Amino acid sequence: MKKQLFSGCAIGLSAVLLIGCQGTDNIASESSIQAPSKPKQQPADEVAAVLYNQIGYQANMAKLIYLQANNALTVDVVDRNNQQSVISKLTSEAQFWPHAGKNFVELDLTELSQVGEYQIVIDGEVLASFRVANDVYTRATKIIAQGFYFNRASHEISFEYGGKFNRAAGHMDQQVKIHHSAASAHRPEGTVVPSPKGWYDAGDYNKYTVNSAISMYTMLRAYLKHPSFFQQLKLNIPEQFNSTADILDELFWQLDWFLTMQDPNDGGVYHKVTTLNFSGKIMPEAGLEPRYMIAKSIGASLDFAATTAYFARHLQDIDAERAKLCAQAAEQAYKWAKANPDKIYVQPDDVKTGAYVVTGDDYSDEWFWAAAELALTFDAKDYWQDLTQLQAIEMSVPTWSDVQGLGWISLAEEANAQQWQYKAQQKLKALAEHMSIMANQSAIKVSLGVFDDDFVWGSNGNMANHIMVLDAAKAYVADPASLNRLIATNLDYIFGTNPTGYSFVSGLGSQTPMHLHHRVSEADDVLDPVPGLVAGGPHAGQQDQCDYPSKFPALSYVDDWCSYATNETAINWNAPLLYAVASVASEE
Ligand SMILES: [Ca+2]
Ligand SMILES: [Ca+2]
């Protein structure tokens, strides 16, 4: 199937529509096609691909469609029901997008605000169908939020809540052993501690503190930005009838586990709960290998301190008991970090699961984020002083290993100390305006690719974090409409307006990942993957040495279990995506 998908593509319309044909890459010849000729009517087979949002365009948002073509084209937009032409217009001139090595022309259909189904027609041939609707992102938010439920550890998913994705519980984690790397006087090697609940981190069945921290911050932040939207968003989970918003119930499943990662004897936080090796392609209940608490670390402790401080501050009126636990946890973890600044995580020889450590990281960003959240929560002089020492740190788009942006966002929105608030807002504004200017100059008007490290492992997560930054910056820029427009085109990219032909979220789109590197999806007997999970996304790393269709970063993606580098799922990519779709859905 994979071979058919990417080789021997006829550049004909049926091929484009059915399999999203990209043709073959020839870097030398294609990169030289940069100067489009003057506009003239072209036959439809000049179009190698149509890039459009496969889940639909929100009626009140920008609607950009791109055709992979070397010349401007006249396109008819036809109402699918009555076959009447509603718009006929000339596309832009072709522009080269270096990340895919292709030329694209732009069709701006923002004026099309009537809800309906439409066809893109050139010379009487239908190239693609798309819809305009009023509930595009509400539906997407629901499915993506439900994706977290499907990743619950220690939980049976019954037919009532999972439908065909029902499965037995696995990884109860009531008897996790202290690994030799985590041994202490109070908890010597082999001590048994409980660490139940939480979500599986990614395609594997393990639970990692560092990656959970940013994911949990992002999800709580999504709720706090749009509480009434989320209070009305019903998920199909067992807690749907209690008085708590379902997204918070889901988040508390993770929080309750997260708090078990702290050693109550000294406040230090374990890096992860994992088996020694990754399991095979098995269902959760078949994962019976022993699980271990692995080494306390500075990265885990600081990220834990930041996250629990953030939760302590914001759960006070939602769940006072959990807020109190978080407050104690945050200060203890930070205290441990101050006493153990050199405890950088070192992967023990007998442990092969994810390391979540960057060689050479000085942890200044983790220190900054933790100090910021603790200062905002406790307003104590020591925390503000620690923060002041790190004030030269720049704003950047957050990732699990680069978290200072989370601190700056919190400061921008919540700092009582006015100089911090103003400084943070200016940094956010500058970053977002830069992204907007650069995106406007790109051939498909997206901000992914603006920064050098955008097309890396988890590029779709980066795109979702771009959207979170843009959304956070809207309050501080002169032209928020321009950021809204970029948020729309960035979302379009994830849901299909990209040159791979895929909408990258399982169950959301007409061509979506079917072979995610996700153990449940691979091991169950269900043809479809678990819905609501975003694939890591394209980048040229190809670390898994799978069979990729291209070396261009934006085309280097393959929907195959083999491709853990581009087709795995992870909570730190789904969380900002949840934030991104909710930010738009709350306006629907
Ligand atoms: Ca509920
Ligand atoms: Ca870092």
TrEMBL record:
CDD domains: E_set_Cellulase_N
An MF annotation (GO) of this entry: cellulase activity
Span of domain Cellulase Ig-like: 48-125
Transmembrane segments: none
Pfam families reported for this sequence: CelD_N, Glyco_hydro_9
Domain Glycoside hydrolase family: 137-580
A GO biological process held by the record: cellulose catabolic process
SUPFAM superfamilies with a match to the protein in the record: E set domains (SSF81296), Six-hairpin glycosidases (SSF48208)
Keyword vocabulary terms for this entry: Carbohydrate metabolism, Cellulose degradation, Glycosidase, Hydrolase, Polysaccharide degradation
Active site: 517, 559, 568
Catalytic activity: Endohydrolysis of (1->4)-beta-D-glucosidic linkages in cellulose, lichenin and cereal beta-D-glucans
Classification via InterPro entries: 6-hairpin_glycosidase_sf, 6hp_glycosidase-like_sf, Cellulase_Ig-like, Glyco_hydro_9, Glyco_hydro_9_Asp/Glu_AS, Glyco_hydro_9_His_AS, Ig-like_fold, Ig_E-set
E.C. designation(s): 3.2.1.4
Family, as annotated: Belongs to the glycosyl hydrolase 9 (cellulase E) family.
PANTHER family: ENDO-1,4-BETA-GLUCANASE
Name recorded for this polypeptide: Endoglucanase
Organism in which the protein naturally occurs: Catenovulum agarivorans DS-2
